Amino acid sequence: MRIAILALEGSVLSAISGLTDMFWITNKAIESSPLHASTFHTRAFKTLVVSSDGAPVWDAEGRLIHIDSSFKMAGKVDVVIAPGMLLGHDLQPINIESIKLAAEWFRTLYNDGTLVAGAGTGSVVLGEAGLLDERSYSTTWWVSHMLQERYPQAHAVKGKKLEEDRGVITTGGCFSWISLALHIIEKGAGSEVARLTTEMSLRDNDLLRQVLFPHPSNIDQNMSLLIRAQEFIRFRKPSITASELAEVLGMTERTLQRRIKKLSQETPKEFITRVRVEMACTMLVSTNVSIHKVAQDCGYTEDTAFRKAFNQLMDMSPAQYREWMKTKSLQVKSSINEDVE
């Protein structure tokens, strides 16, 4: 299976190198197993890091990314992946012309039968290619509103780390490329090979195991509580009450009160409000929707209650916060331009 991994100015280097390493580890795992080695007479997975013209590009932190091929010379590939990339201070994509050029290549490959994938913010490339239209996709909460605004014909799936819809695969957060790689390994070499790769690369890493295999017995119960509570508020019911949250988490209100207070120094009601305001902050920066719409999406039926909660936590109104962040963004851009000049 030939896998092309896109590299753009501002790509996340750890995702690119991590993907290549994961597929390399899989090849080594196959070679070490007589059972699987007899099935795959050559390397099961070959990766190419590809830029538009084959020239090196700078990653999100200013490091040079080695490139194996250009779009034109990459040839036929079975899978093409867009890893995560740097976004602007307004959570909008930067280097949009480069992204659109990559999107054309992705669209051509897809039409030729290539499986396409976007990890985290790499889904922007798929969106610009029109490959999210009328499809379900997975993403992370902090860019979900940007994607919804840019690609209104796409359908976000909440609460799923990975989604595959008619040859288009999408995943959520910064390290979701791990789940994506395992998914592709399973599709290309079977579940036993994917399990073998997991045993060699991930099983001894407790933090990653918590993300990839979230069985309650494997997760620190305190961290699990906060993660599950936040995910339910963000993705399922922002308007949830403390009593409803306790029921969802399978405990009494008194137990929830005690555990939340111990972990976050907040009451359950304060915790819920903070998560909702954090959601609002992201929307106010990354979209141009009305304050009323932000309030609704964050679980508030009355704008007055939303403004009051927001003001108490942020010491300014939602409108003031949006304007303040816009000014900060302009100041940062101006500073960058001065440094360049």
Entry keywords:
341 residues, 7-stranded mixed sheet
Structure overview:
- The protein has 341 residues and is α/β, with parallel strands linked by helices.
- Helices cover 53% and strands 11% of the residues.
- The protein is built from 15 helices and eleven strands.
- It has helices at 13-31, 34-37, 96-111, 123-128, 141-150, 177-189, 191-201, 206-212, 221-235, 242-248, 253-264, 268-286, 291-297, 303-314, 318-340; strands spanning 2-6, 46-51, 57-58, 64-65, 69-70, 79-82, 115-119, 136-137, 155-156, 162-165, 168-171.
- The strands form three sheets. The chain has a seven-stranded mixed beta sheet with strand order 5-2-1-6-7-11-10, sandwiched between helices. It has a two-stranded antiparallel ribbon with strand order 3-4.
- Strand 10 (162-165) and strand 11 form a beta hairpin.
- Helix 12 (268-286) packs across helix 14 (303-314).
- The longest helix has 23 residues, at 318-340.
- Residues 204-223 have low confidence and may be disordered.
List the helices and strands and how they pair.
Elements: E1 2-6, H1 13-31, H2 34-37, E2 46-51, E3 57-58, E4 64-65, E5 69-70, E6 79-82, H3 96-111, E7 115-119, H4 123-128, E8 136-137, H5 141-150, E9 155-156, E10 162-165, E11 168-171, H6 177-189, H7 191-201, H8 206-212, H9 221-235, H10 242-248, H11 253-264, H12 268-286, H13 291-297, H14 303-314, H15 318-340
